[in-house]
Amino acid sequence: MEETLSRRDASDAVSGLGWRYLLGTLRASVVVGSMARAASVAAEAVAACGADADGHLRADLRADRVVLTLQTLDRAALTALDVDLARRISDTVRQAGLRTEPETGTGAARSVQQLEIAIDALDIAAIRPFWRAVTGYVAEPGADGPRDPLVDPVGQGPAIWFQQMDAPRPQRNRVHFDICVPHDEAPRRLAAALAAGGRLLDEEAAPAFWVLADAEGNEACVTTWQGRD
């Protein structure tokens, strides 16, 4: 079994290829001009991965872009093989006159990202089964403890994780969004949120995450892989 890569090692290995590390995955976008071209790019990515495509590659096809995600799916982790597949895909896409990119600072609608929903709880083990049942979600491979996160088995919806509360806090929202962005996108995202009327509540844990709030106190965290190893 291949060794799991650290966040930093995975990020460093693929940043120059246009991929970004996000929540245990590698993700890149390929800008295209039609659904037919998107399908062609996806097919080329599958061919570049060969027999490893089924266990590592996911593709989201739209008329304007293909979003590619790599992970060793049966372990919910990244290995050297995922990095090799990213390199193969990027080379194949480049030969087709396109490129893999994170869409950071390019004027795109947004960069590649992943969304998490965090639920504050006093007794995580007591509420986790409810959220698992009502969402149809499952545990990640190797992480099915009573306090572990839940994920969409088809990889479309945001992950759900549970934050331990020390005491009831009825005055505060108990569900907040975590927006995982590329590490080099975080400054832009923070600036945009603050310019839109947001407030910075806490940056003690930065660059792992910054806690923001809207004008009514509803919270969201901008997160990156950095500061977590």
Automatic annotation (TrEMBL):
Entry annotated with the keyword Lyase = yes
**Enzyme Commission code(s) on record:** 4.2.1.96
Q: Which Pfam families match?
A: Glyoxalase_6, Pterin_4a
Q: Which residues form a coiled coil?
A: none
Q: What class of enzyme is it?
A: lyase
Give the record's family classification: Belongs to the pterin-4-alpha-carbinolamine dehydratase family.
Name of the protein this chain belongs to: Putative pterin-4-alpha-carbinolamine dehydratase
Occurrences of domain Glyoxalase-like (ranges): 117-223
Q: Which InterPro entries match?
A: Glyas_Bleomycin-R_OHBP_Dase (IPR029068), Glyoxalase_6 (IPR041581), PCD_sf (IPR036428), Pterin_deHydtase (IPR001533)
Q: What reaction does this catalyse?
A: (4aS,6R)-4a-hydroxy-L-erythro-5,6,7,8-tetrahydrobiopterin = (6R)-L-erythro-6,7-dihydrobiopterin + H2O
**Organism encoding this protein:** Streptantibioticus silvisoli
